[in-house]
Amino acid sequence: MKHIWKLFALFILFSCESSKFDSEVFLPKLFGDGMVVQREAAISVWGKGIPGENVRVSLADAVTSATVDADSTWILKLPNLSAGGPFVLEINQQIFNDVYVGDVWVAGGQSNMEWRLKSQVIGAEKEFAEGGNPQIRFFKVPNSYSAVKLDDVVGGEWKVADSVNMKDFSAIAWFFAKRNNKEKNVPVGIIEANWGGTPVEGWTDAEILAEMEGSFKEQAKDVVENNQSWDAKLKENESNRQLRDSLVSKPDSLAALQVAAISYDDSNWRKINLPQANPLQHIAWARKKFKLTNTDNVSLHLPNIEQMAYVYVNGKLLHYKDWGKTLPEMEIPAEMLVKGTNVLTVRAINTWNNQPTIGKSEEMYLLQSDEKTSLEGTWSYSNSTVEPQLPKVEWYNWMPGMMYNAMIVPITNYTIKGAIWYQGESNAGRHEEYKELFSTMITNWRADWGLGDFPFLFVQLANFMERKDVQPESNWAFLREAQNQILELPKTGMVTIIDIGEEADIHPRNKKDVGERLWLQARKVAYGEKNLASGPQFDSLSRQGNELIVKFKSAGEGLKLKEGDAVKGFIVAKEDADFQQVAGSIVDKETVKIMLPEGIETGEIRYAWADNPEVNLVNNLDLPAEPFRAKFE
């Protein structure tokens, strides 16, 4: 009987206690079903509620509580938990299922980090066929910007890496997360906070930038001192963006079929000579008539359209091209064609700069029985006859602090393992500022998160643009040097990809190697392993007679050439003279010898110093040697 009364008393006590945690709480969007929280670290949980009310949080075997402050906010920390799941997270009366404990990374930067797995990434089809991984989850912070610091992101949800969701994940972050999961046997969460085309100052606190010297200072001061007026400008700009997106998203199907029909009268349209001239703007429609004597086995070759396009043949939709993709070789069904006159119609949109382009020389033709019919030459086009002109949308998100306020500040309470970053293309024209700007951003983020010097791993710019053997004034080379100098900060790691870029595309499709090279850095910087994580790095330069001796570290089992029999990529110059190419030869596991041209006594040597240098020096992991420059005498 006494035992029963004890149980009853405990029941009453539990009931009274539980009633203290039934007040409503409001949580950031990062909290939801399928989330991943950081293992082996204090897990921050925060939100808003009724002042004075109690909040209790439980996850796995951890329970803690707090009281809502007078300003309606509360924050608490769950103790360290080991990797595992799925668990249930309870916060007062709110329940979140399928929660895992593992490693959480922020994936930041511009378009090369944002680049989706489905956007013609090399090897993507194999990834889709494998079906994903239920222990990997992504949270995509929507592209947003603000003149004031926000306390929550504007949207987003955790998505499991299944064969459908993973197609929209950052390709680099996916390959990185896959290695993290496989090698550490832990769940992995990726918080994507990236946006194509963006400069580093947009991801940094404007209040800090306003106190620094640089091209960004006046804008930063303006944002800080006039944030209320900026708030109004941003709302108007956002309204214009929403209107623009609604206009470009999909054409009116009936109108599109009429405009794309053979019988449509385009006599009042202007004429354009494609691809030589491209005066296209807004939502551009372009038409080209062609004749056929046979409708069988006709295919269209028109891979170069920027950015998005709807392609019609005789009033019927043949293909939709999304941004980031090229148009494939398209077989035109015979039933779409007629003997005699046909018409090809393209609706093209470029929301990047409002200037779509169609075609490239020798890449515009119909193919039938191995015979080409050129589509170059005169087309009819309209920039505003079919659909209205687009409203002007400014890139205010590029301004100091704008993306930081909306996409970084709201997530800085979330406990993370570290960050991976790919950015710099948009700062190359101001490379002299980049070391200070980028190091400021990293320090800024670390201070905001309050986790100490968390691992920050970043990608050095890839090779890109026309190949030039000698290019000492390359902005991209100077920007790479500035990135290398960031390694002076503690717990940073840099990935060199000077070997896997593409001359004609700023978005190289080999994202797998980038993600996996970032993982090599993570093993070393974040997990303390003694692995080889970098390509050969410049160590020292000496002179022996008419020879320069370059010593490298991070050579692993030894330097080697990926192809050829001489080291490519070196240029030298004596002081105040022009640079010239020189070849090098591998002397031993960590040494390269360069024979100096006659007449050069003192001067400078540079390696991989161009937008798109030709290089072949690697270590035993096939990781490329890092660009550098050094003086000699």
UniProtKB/TrEMBL annotation:
Single biological process term from Gene Ontology: carbohydrate metabolic process
Matching SUPFAM superfamilies: Galactose-binding domain-like, SGNH hydrolase
Keyword Hydrolase: yes
Keyword list, A-Z: Hydrolase
Alphabetized GO MF terms: sialate O-acetylesterase activity
Domain of life (superkingdom): Bacteria
InterPro entries reported in the protein's UniProt record: Galactose-bd-like_sf, SASA, SGNH_hydro_sf, SIAE
Pfam families membership: SASA
UniProt xrefs under Gene3D superfamilies: SGNH hydrolase (3.40.50.1110)
Residue span(s) of domain Sialate O-acetylesterase: 398-508
Full protein name: Sialate O-acetylesterase
